[in-house]
Automatic annotation (TrEMBL), chain A:
Keywords, in A-Z order: Hydrogen ion transport, Ion transport, Transport
Function: Subunit of the V1 complex of vacuolar(H+)-ATPase (V-ATPase), a multisubunit enzyme composed of a peripheral complex (V1) that hydrolyzes ATP and a membrane integral complex (V0) that translocates protons. V-ATPase is responsible for acidifying and maintaining the pH of intracellular compartments.
Family matches, as InterPro entries: ATPase_V1-cplx_f_g_su (IPR008218), ATPase_V1-cplx_fsu_euk (IPR005772), ATPase_V1_fsu_sf (IPR036906)
Underlying gene: vha-9
Protein name as catalogued: V-type proton ATPase subunit F
Native source species: Gossypium australe
Any one GO MF annotation of this record: proton-transporting ATPase activity, rotational mechanism
TrEMBL record, chain B:
Protein name, entry field: Vacuolar ATPase assembly protein VMA22
Biased composition regions of type Basic and acidic residues, renumbered to the chain: 135-158
Pfam families referenced in this protein's UniProt entry, alphabetically: Vma22_CCDC115
Source taxon at top rank: Eukaryota
Family matches, as InterPro entries: Vma22/CCDC115
Example of a GO MF term: unfolded protein binding
Spans annotated as Disordered: 110-158
Alphabetical GO biological process terms: vacuolar proton-transporting V-type ATPase complex assembly
Length: 120, 214
């Protein structure tokens, strides 16, 4: 999980928290002190770990527009089936389907360019 | 008037092809619709969970419900995911996720119980087939199994909340249940996502094939 405090605490109460022998966790709480590099490194680490099947990431990490854009690039360019990247609604912003990475990938089918190129 | 005897068989071939393409498109649209429905359900469940967590924090105090209290000692996750490849499918690259709630090395019964309930949830139509008696028998055996499963599961739930103290607000327990429900929805979303992407690849392949033909 890469999300705000309340979301992480909630899911940890549901039993998904894991801490290995090196004290590495399977979650990152994003707050005002979290840097862009930390989020980027954590995302890359989670997507390469074999013991992680799904990565939950808040769709809108409010405090950092820059972070959201950085993560957007990483998430949109990720294409492996496992671990699955799931964008979850964040506490302060409703879910926006226009920014969902999976829907962005498939909206190509509905774009004017794809229809026009099919007709050529 | 020239009669084209070739046309009927060509039409049949095209019809079969069109039927297959239409089926792929329908599957894609259905899975996308289900994906969006699940996302909205998740939003509502999470909102409930956040509200309950905020209520718990209000009643217990902010110092008792915060991340400082999280357990940073080495421990495995009590809830995990089982990833399998879809059986009987041509496209074996599609993963299938199953949630194993509150399963630990000393708690194999709960693993079986929860897996069964999660599989039943993923394939609810199986429960509704057959006679009423059969359904009732299944229900009573499921109740017995669920009672056997509940005690270790309740213990795991209490253990998970123990980082916030021995006595916790009912709102915190409610928040825990909400986030558990959110987890179940997330697993369904993960499965729907892989179905949608698989259907999308099928449709895209056909479109690319058409472009190449032209």
């Amino acid at each position: 999980m890469i999300a705000d405090e309340d979301t992480v605490v909630g899911f940890l109460m549901a039993g998904v928290g894991n801490v290995d022998l090196r004290r590495k966790t399977n979650y990152l709480i994003v707050d005002s002190k979290t840097t862009v590099k930390q989020i980027e490194d954590t995302f890359k680490e989670f997507t390469t770990r074999e013991d992680i099947a799904v990565v939950l990431i808040s769709q809108y990490l409010e405090l950092y527009e820059m972070v959201a854009n950085m993560i957007r690039f990483l998430v949109d360019s990720y294409s492996k089936p496992v671990p699955a990247i799931l964008e979850i609604p964040s506490k302060d912003h409703p879910y926006d389907p226009a920014h969902d990475s999976v829907l962005s990938r498939v909206k190509y089918l509905f774009s004017a360019e794809s229809v026009a190129s099919g007709r050529r | 008037m020239v009669v084209d005897h070739e046309t009927p068989s060509l039409e049949n071939g095209q019809t079969d092809k069109e039927v297959e393409e239409n089926a792929n498109v329908l599957q894609f649209m259905d899975s996308m619709d289900a994906y969006l429905t699940l996302i909205h359900s998740l939003s509502s469940t999470l909102r409930r969970g956040w509200l309950e967590l905020a209520s718990a924090r209000h009643s217990m105090g902010a110092s008792r419900v915060n991340t400082v209290l999280l357990d940073h000692t080495s421990h495995p996750a009590a809830t995990s995911l089982l990833v399998t490849q879809d059986e009987g499918k041509v496209d074996s690259g599609k993963p299938h996720f199953t949630l194993c709630k509150w399963a630990s090395s000393s708690n194999e019964n709960s693993l079986l119980g929860e897996k069964q309930s999660s599989q039943d949830k993923l394939h609810p139509q199986l429960r509704h087939r057959g006679s009423t008696e059969l359904c009732e028998e299944k229900t009573s055996s499921e109740n017995k199994a669920s009672r056997e499963v509940d005690d270790p599961v309740q213990k795991e739930r209490s253990k998970s909340l123990s980082m916030f103290g021995t006595l916790v607000s009912p709102k915190l327990r409610a928040a825990q249940l909400s986030f558990e429900a959110a987890l179940e929805t997330l697993v369904e979303i993960a499965n729907m996502r892989s179905e949608m992407l698989c259907a999308f690849d099928q449709v895209n392949m056909k479109l690319e094939g058409r472009k190449d033909e032209k």
